[in-house]
Specification:
Largest sheet: 9 strands, mixed
Number of strands: 9
Shape: globular
CATH superfamily of the largest domain: Spore Coat Polysaccharide Biosynthesis Protein SpsA, Chain A
CATH architecture of the largest domain: Alpha-Beta Complex
Helix content: 40-55%
Radius of gyration: 21 Å
Structural class: alpha/beta
CATH topology of the largest domain: Spore Coat Polysaccharide Biosynthesis Protein SpsA, Chain A
Order of helices and strands: EHEHEHEEHEHEHHEHHEHHHHHHH
Strand content: 15-25%
Length: 353
């Protein structure tokens, strides 16, 4: 008999963390699941740990591959999955014991909705989590979806959503193995477009509880790498952020039809990501000059001027001052209260009645 949920876990260089991940899956209060462990040619002891888990509990199934990257590993897991729904987890992360229970209960109450949940990388928040009797839920309809997208962490991740496998297979959806980054974003774009085309009055319902623990300590994990090539071209990464901005407009339509505060969240997310990329480039001033040659960069600047919306990164980018970008990025890490104050000043004119 097919299980209700298939949990797909791509595995690569996570030997120290994989046992805790597997224990969190075994601890689920909803027990009708299977777990597809896709060993992506991990050179450590992960393969043996996966095989031991399958011998211990028949709900674990193992697929061993040569290293090909996270997209191929996830596609392989989806192809092997037998459940009605699919959940993705990374081998170095953990899921709350009630994650499947709460997500499926919400799905059954709202069968025409896409269900998601929040996550945390804060160990204290994770260990101290107390679940209320009635979990809080945030709803995003078709016209609120831009606001959901603006929080790129929530939107991009595939590890915080419950996917219907029949929709994925009917529409032929999969992860693009040619993408070096942003494969999560690309996949979820496919999913929500297919969903809203079939259910224009549907909504995304987000359980506002950190039911997923995202472990940032493992730099070698499959989602911190790009398959066989484990390096990132941050110059290309900066330009990719502007491509994503253009794709967002192509998907959502003209931004002028949306509340300015939602659009500001999108432009801020783009600028924040560009700043991160510039801080990882040896000669960022050259890349800044190249960025200003792209129409999307100039469009973002014009939008901010038109709406009198402020962003410190944009201020330094307009000056072509890479040192200012790097300094403000360090402020984000060293003085978060100051960063948050200045960041929210950018919304001041937009939020005026």
């Amino acid at each position: 008999m097919a299980p209700t949920v298939s949990i797909v876990v791509p595995v690569y260089k996570a030997e120290a963390y994989l046992p805790a991940c597997l224990e969190s899956i075994l601890a689920q209060t909803f027990t009708d699941w299977e777990c597809i462990l896709v060993d992506d040619g991990s050179p450590d002891g992960c393969g043996a740990i996966c095989d031991a888990a399958a011998r211990r509990d028949g709900r674990f199934r193992v697929v061993h591959l040569q290293n090909g990257g996270v997209s191929r590993a996830r596609n392989t897991g989806m192809e092997a999955a037998r459940g009605e729904y699919c959940v993705f987890a990374d081998a170095d992360d953990r899921i709350h014991p009630r994650l499947l229970e709460l997500a499926l209960a919400e799905q059954r109450r709202h069968p025409r909705s896409l269900i998601g949940w929040s996550f945390t990388s804060d160990p204290a928040a994770w260990e101290g989590l107390e679940l209320p009797a009635d979990p809080p839920v945030t709803r995003y309809g078709r016209w609120e979806l831009l606001g959901f997208f603006a929080d790129r962490v929530l939107f991009n991740s595939v590890s915080n959503k419950l996917f219907r496998l029949d929709v994925i297979r009917e529409k032929g959806l999969c992860f693009d193995v040619s993408m070096r980054s942003s494969e999560d974003y690309d996949f979820f774009n496919q999913v929500w477009k297919a969903y809203f085309s079939a259910c224009p009055d549907g909504e995304i319902r987000l359980l506002d509880l950190p039911l997923y623990y995202y472990n940032q300590a493992n730099a070698d994990s499959i989602t911190h790498t790009t398959g066989a090539a484990h390096s990132r071209d941050f110059s290309a990464y900066c330009r990719e952020q502007l491509e994503l901005y253009a794709q967002t407009q192509a998907v959502f339509g003209p931004f002028e039809q949306y509340p300015a505060r939602d659009v500001l969240s999108v432009t801020n997310a783009t600028l924040n990501s560009i700043a991160f990329g510039l801080c990882n480039i040896p000669h960022p001033h050259r890349e800044i000059r190249r960025l200003w040659q792209l129409p999307e960069m100039r469009e973002i600047s014009r939008w901010h001027r038109r709406h009198r919306a402020h962003n410190a990164y944009l201020f330094f980018l307009r000056l072509r001052w890479a040192g200012g970008v790097r300094w403000w990025f360090r402020v984000r890490e060293t003085r978060p209260a100051l960063f948050a104050t200045v960041y929210h000043l950018g919304y001041r004119n937009i939020l005026k009645p």
